[in-house]
Design goal:
Layout: H1 2-5, H2 20-25, H3 32-62, H4 67-80, H5 84-104, H6 108-118, H7 126-137, H8 141-163, H9 167-179, H10 182-189, H11 202-212
Amino acid sequence: MLQTVDPLFPIGSYAHSYGLEELVQLDRVKDPESLQQYIDSILFPNLELFELPYLRFLYEIAHTENWGEISILDQEIGAAKLTKEIRNASSSQGQQRLRILRKLRPCSEFEKLQELKLSKEVAPHHLTVNAIENSILQTPLLPTLSAWTYQALAAPCSASLKLFRIGQEGAQQVLTQSIQKIENVVEKSLEIERDHAGCFNPLLDIASARHEQAFSRLFIS
């Protein structure tokens, strides 16, 4: 788990800002304070209400190897990502993660996921591959959810260094404040049931749609 959440693990996360670049262009994020607000008002709700619940659903089903249900969950993840950029970013990182894991830790589960990908039953999305990977590694659920949350927090802090004046220390201060909230967000996410999982954030969707048509940009998404 530690190896694959490390920035050295080459899944291309450095190339994505997940809408942050356009929010900077819109002057919604411009300093450490507004970056913290972005994390609190956009990133954490998405984690608590959508990403962490779906990671949990997939993790629990992975133990049963119910590939039909895994395919449905993967399709639901794609359907919940309303803009092309965000959807493609999720699937490209998932496919890259799967490709590398098949080489590093060959196993029947990863080969089955590759079969489903080739038959277009799954993308697979990044959440899906992460859940199956941690199920195989027998990583406990709470560390799995916490590691995913940390990864999601570190990404915008890293991207911010390229987008506006914040500096390494400023980015680390925002990350430190955010880390203190991981346990609470993970605990709340455990209360979300399948029928109520999802997070609608039009600001992020609009930013992502605008970014796709931007004249110039540093990040893919």
